[in-house]
Design goal:
Radius of gyration: 17 Å
Number of helices: 4
Helix content: 40-55%
Distance between the termini: 56 Å
Largest sheet: 2 strands, antiparallel
Strand order of the largest sheet: 1-2
Length: 83
Amino acid sequence: MYDRENIKIGGSLNGKKYRSSSRHDPNYIQLSGDVRKELGLQFKAACTLKQLNIGEGLEEAIEIWFQAQQAPSSSNTSKKGDE
């Protein structure tokens, strides 16, 4: 049976771990944007396989993206359209 309290306060439900709701947490913001359908479906599937919710997956992906932007690399120095 579905237990809302486990999701609200964090904990686990059917072996999955859930973090506390961040919707009303002042330390979080909501981001939105459009991505290609295939990319979005792949991302959702990958999150499901890793037992992450979409927000957790996005957070992880954004952190990795920022790390890649800070790493010195010839591919990061050229901008789209400069080729």
